Amino acid sequence: xxxxxxxxxxxxxxxxxxxxxxxxxxxxxxxxxxxxxxxxxxxxxxxxxxxxxxxxxxxxxxxxxxxxxxxxxxxxxxxxxxxxxxxxxxxxxxxxxxxxxxxxxxxxxxxxxxxxxxxxxxxxxxxxxxxxxxxxxxxxxxxxxxxxxxxxxxxxxxxxxxxxxxxxxxxxxx
Length: 174
What we know:
Layout: H1 7-13, H2 15-33, E1 36-39, E2 42-45, H3 46-50, H4 52-65, H5 69-83, H6 86-109, H7 114-136, H8 142-173
Helix pairs in contact: 2-4, 2-5, 4-8, 5-6, 6-7, 7-8
């Protein structure tokens, strides 16, 4: 029996990937449909605060489907283009691509331990892709940028912390 003939087996095999695609659409929809918050006269999207969840899930998707995570990202952005708003989907796709390219470069060319590469990646790609996204959606302001970066750092910190704890457990069992 192949994986395609049994939907529950197919779902279990690609649960993180499916969730990632849905989360991209959900977060892009939040940027369009959820109410904005006003902080010091600047509009902040509710999406700014939850976008870090994508980074948590992306780590698991990369384990499931390796570099094909780019295809999942494209599918999520395409669905966002149809279901959310074209400008948000294009900005999201642009920011994702730049962020993924930076992450790929850091993971590929630095010889640092994985825990350090996670932090380097977050420190470099999160601010850059945040500026790109906010600029392309005409929402670039200091408060929104800070909220978006902090949301991403929170997600990335959860990934880093879980990796670190798992690595320490593996060392203690050895």
